[in-house]
Amino acid sequence: PVLFDGPRGPGLFANVQLQVFPGSDRQILGAGLAPGWRANAGPGLVSDIVEFEERDAMALQASQSWNVALIPDLGVQMFGYRSLSISFHPGDATAAEGRDPRLLVGAVDLLSQIDLSRRQWQTVDIPLESLGYGTDGVLVTVAIRGNLEGTSYLADVRMVAGPQPRATAVV
């Protein structure tokens, strides 16, 4: 609020809300989980932070359908971010016998952009709108689930900042 001191005492001149754009991407998983984040692995999954192919990564060891949630201590304002970026390595993971393979972030199927036969790091950039978040939403969890068996890896999970607006001046 902008206050003024008038002849009848203090008063409200204007109520101004500022939107602050993020200065850079927001890391969720890099060299371990970022401060203020935790991982909650569901049944059927053992997860641990390891070094894999010269990267710090979260190893996902599974023998059945699984899920893991990356949860911030406080909800994260989505204003100024455009996407969620995830690096994935299939490791030795394979599709469960007799089942179609699944690897989902929210309702977004990563296997439409990741090739399980390519045993290398693959990065997917998911627009926040695809995850059901707008720029005015609050991120309370990144839900990842799948039915791959074996060990696969996640690394460099981050919220990608959108372009900064051009500076303008009011004349």
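(the above was protein one; protein two follows)
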Amino acid sequence: PKNATVRTHRALASFGGPNPCEEALAHLKKTQELGTGGWNNIAWIQALYVFQDCPERYDGKLALEAAHKALRVLPGLRPASGTLGLVLYRQGRLHEAREALLQALERSARQQPTELFPLAMASWKLGRKAEARAYYERGVERMRARHRWNITENTRLMREAAQVLGIPLAL
């Protein structure tokens, strides 16, 4: 298909299949070749799914470029700020990650677990332990309040955050 959204959704769907990394990366490559958008999705899939499931194939440079392109195209887009925050966190740029994630939270009336959990991880690594724990707990609360336990992104990030904070996984 010649549609960036369809391509990125196919990339995400690949993570439930028998050869997730190869299929997803092939769809992401086609999305890039289209050059018509989908930048936030490319960055997000790289920073979350590829990073966790096939870290040897993670392309931090591509993720960062795509996140910046997404913000240039839609500067007020809340998910783009959150995606940039996760990408920066993956690169160890913790202060910048924290700032991007805080911006994403400011742009949203409903704070999302997809921003709260990475913010908890970045805060923890910056030595802000109580703040990190509060962000983690708020992420769990948001999942409970909105019945979002079935959303893979939320549970992936919650699991990773619990591991970084050294606490039991909230279930």
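Reviewer note on protein two: The longest helix spans residues 129-145.
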